Automatic annotation (TrEMBL):
It comes from Geomicrobium sediminis. This is one of the proteins that binds to the 5S RNA in the ribosome where it forms part of the central protuberance. This is Large ribosomal subunit protein bL25. The gene is rplY. InterPro entries: Rbsml_bL25/Gln-tRNA_synth_N, Ribosomal_bL25/Gln-tRNA_synth, Ribosomal_bL25_b-dom, Ribosomal_bL25_C, Ribosomal_bL25_long, Ribosomal_L25_dom, Ribosomal_uL5_bac-type. SUPFAM superfamilies: Ribosomal protein L25-like. The lineage of its organism: Bacteria, Bacillati, Bacillota, Bacilli, Bacillales.
Length: 215
């Protein structure tokens, strides 16, 4: 199981928090149903390595300086700096390994939908699905095979249930992905081409002018 060392932080002033980030640490908070909220920090590089090892919904053994305990946690929330691309804050949630919990799991589409090649539009509607399971049974992602989807076909949450060690919290009727019929192009161009009253009038006026000159 992935392991990570955390440091207690008692000074919560913004200036101190900023310095932590400059020094290569990420401010974080550890909490849980039976765990008192505790401010900590973790080394940024080590955290990213640990997260890659454990996965977004994986369990991490978190050790806090002077605590003497092993906290089995999940990353409940991440805050990122979009411009700099780094993590600015982490919520570590201590889990009860014997109790089920809810988690959002990413949906990955697998394969190519034949309906797309026929001109249909692939619409990915659910990017995450909520599941309930024991902490060790929460999947890293849910793969949805779209290789049989033609135009007008869809896959709903109910189609994904197949006796796994977790259950979905979403409504069965929710659509995960669909191939929509192509949108008809605007036929207004043809109407505009046939409706040119000014040009017709100008032509007629020109013809009348020619007749007058002949007379």
């Amino acid at each position: 199981m992935a392991k990570l060392q955390a440091h207690s932080r008692n000074d919560l002033r913004r200036s101190v928090t900023r310095k932590l980030r400059v020094d290569g640490f990420v401010p974080a908070v550890l909490y849980g149903k039976k765990t008192e909220s505790t401010a900590v920090s973790v080394p940024s590089i080590e955290f990213m390595k640990t997260l890659r090892e454990a996965g977004r919904n994986g369990i991490i053994d978190l050790f806090v300086d002077g605590d003497g305990k092993k906290h089995q946690v999940m990353v409940h929330d991440l805050q990122n700096d979009i411009l700099k691309g780094n993590t600015t804050h982490i919520d570590f949630f201590e889990v009860d390994m014997k109790s089920e919990l809810d988690a959002d799991v990413a949906v990955n589409l697998v394969g190519d939908a034949p309906g797309e090649a026929e001109g249909g539009v692939l619409s990915h509607m659910l990017y995450t699905i909520s599941v309930r399971a024991l902490p060790t049974e929460i999947p890293e992602s849910i793969e949805v095979d779209i290789s049989q989807l033609g135009i007008g076909d869809s896959i709903s949450v109910s189609d994904l249930k197949s006796g796994k060690n977790f259950e979905f919290n979403n409504d069965d009727e929710e659509t995960v992905v669909a191939v929509l019929a192509p949108t008809l192009e605007d036929e207004g161009t043809e109407e505009e081409a046939s409706d040119e009253p000014e040009l017709v009038e100008n032509d007629e006026a020109s013809d009348e002018g020619s007749d007058d000159s002949e007379q």
